[in-house]
Amino acid sequence: MNDKKLVNMNRGSVFLSLIFFVLFLVVLFRFLYIMITGTVDGVNLVENKETRITKEGILEGKKGEILTSDGEKIAVDSQVYTVIGVLSKENPNHIKDIPDTAAKLARVLKTDSKAIEKSLSDSKAYQVELGKIGRNITFTQMQEISDLDLPGIIFAPDIRRTYPLGDFASHIVGITDFDGIGISGIEKEYSEELLGTDGYIKKKIDGFIGLGYDLPQEDSKSKPPQNGNNIYTTLDMNIQTILEDSMNQVVKEYNPEKIIGIVMDPKTGEIVALSNRPSIYPNEQNEVNYLNYALSSSFEPGSTMKIFTLAAAINEGVYHGQEKYKSGAIEVTGELIHDHNKTGWGIITYDKGVELSSNVAFTILAKDKLGFDRFYRYLQEFGFDKKTGIDMGNEGLGKFVYNRPIEKATTAFGQGSTFTPIQLVTAASSIANDGKMMKPYVIKKITDESGGILEENKPKVLNNPVSAETAKKTRELLTSVVTDGTGTHFQLNDFQVAGKTGTAQISDGEGGYQVGRNNYMFSFLGMAPAEDPRLIMYVAVEKPNLKADQVGANAVSEIFNTVMDYSLKKLNATSDVDNNNSNSEEVTPTIMESYKEKSVKNSVSILKDKGLEPIILGRGKKVIETEPIKGTELLKGSKVLIKTEGKKVMPDITGWSLSDVMKLSSLTGLEIQHEGNGFVTSQSIGEGKEIKEGNKLSIKLK
Questions:
Q1: Is 121 a catalytic residue?
Q2: Candidate list 275, 303, 417, 567, residue with the active-site label
Q3: Residue range of the domain that includes 38
Q4: Domain PASTA: where (predicted)?
Q5: What are the DSSP calls for 113-181, one per residue?
Q6: Over the stretch 521-552, which tens digit does the pLDDT of each residue have?
Q7: pTM for this structure?
């Protein structure tokens, strides 16, 4: 090797050594920098490592439940599913035949296959949802679709607010939107109380090749979710169900524009049932009118207002029932007020005028006997100038039209001034409750998830507008209205009813009133038993389609009589009708005991000995839960549902009432869909079939 070549090699070695030395220094300084600062390109390595090996999950807190007074679930959080269609051909399990898939899905989802086919025809999407059609489907529907083995159809689980009893008390309970936010009723007004708080769980995992094993000796951190509070309403399951059924029957028979029904316990102010038509169907998420007419809508009450004019006159000592007056018409500052038959009944007593609902009689009582100023003070005492303060939002307030003498006179018999149904019922509680006017309420108590009581409503007296003697005398006269006057449609076989009918004109929006025999708000405000009322009930039916031989009271009484008679018997109210003329007999109820953890065989034997009908929902040997619950009063022949350990099994419910079916729903979680009224004639889940969570039971009643 020559000297020149050797020199070149030495120079190259030195040059390479310098390069490697410089690189070594760069790496060394970089390493020292990272050691000292703990960062790379502004990224904290410790924090980044923690982030990479820490797995965090959200533990969702459920919303609280809404229940009836005796614990029947009305609103709950339930598992639902969203249908997803995989379209990309890169996925071997994609939809192969879109028209066939759409047709089969449409049969289960009960919709038009064209709408589904349109959703599935997006050629650019990897996968698609079906929109509103495929959201929030039940476990049963998901299972039906799964059984079809449709390629490319998958499901995403979710939690949604559901209503196991359908439109049961829907205007009181309210509804939520798709995000679970309350938009009406209790769901809106008590959203903070119902809302749960999410928890979390954090744990360290081994990031090695993505296996994600939990790291040993690393403590996980977690915060458990807190479920929302439960709200117990004052609603009675059975009375509310009968009210709903009766309203449905009247809708079917008379097709009215509106129905309002309120049932109150006058001793406490508890609203035991309330409903409106049109209804809200919360499980269907349709566009509906959320306005609770019973609380928010004001209108001229018609002759039901005469109850309070009468009570005021009695309380002031200016009512003399045997005194006579001339019926037919009376002049008030140049304007005539007529009785409803125009010509009147000649010279009659005031007692007879009350029975016949004479406008002239009540004009005289307000104008001449009381005086308009004193009458107005009584209207204030009855609370007609203010809201009742019921524990719900959107309570309305009527309007006094009380300036000219003619307006003051017409207010006395229910025209001109407007009031809400809840104002009328609240005022009437003073007549039913010996002068004490009770504050209405629908929230019985609020509990935490373990059952601890956080808030509890108690009866509250709003005012004492009249004396106990006045209230009793008023009830006696209102009883004669039902037995011998305009309210004969509202007589019951086993109980005396005290009440007043109303036939209110409906505004035409131009300062006048609509005309035609159907264009009225027909109503009845009644209480029973008349001697010591257990319940007050108000029913109003707007613009029913009446046949030639029908009057408005036909439609109203179909609801009032059915609900009041059933409810009083359920409450074991004492009949105040002469037993010699009645087929009723004294019935001693059985008080339901607790059978929890007891033998099914022994429990069935005991229940049968007490004259009750036990229904077993399972094949276990130990009682887990019963419906009704401990302390419930039962009549002989009442059904007692027994939930056992293990799988729940469907009984034969042919011949059951809707009320009994709702008990089954409460105990099993079945979602009920019903058609018709009366008793069950068919059921979609056969006897002996297993009841799975989320199952939907369709029944027909007749």
A1: no
A2: 303
A3: 3-57
A4: 644-702
A5: HHHHHHHTT-TT-SEEE-GGGGSSB-HHHHHHHHTTT-TTEEEEEEEEEE-TTTTTTHHHH-EE-TTS-
A6: 999 999 999 999 999 999 999 999 998 888 99
A7: 0.76
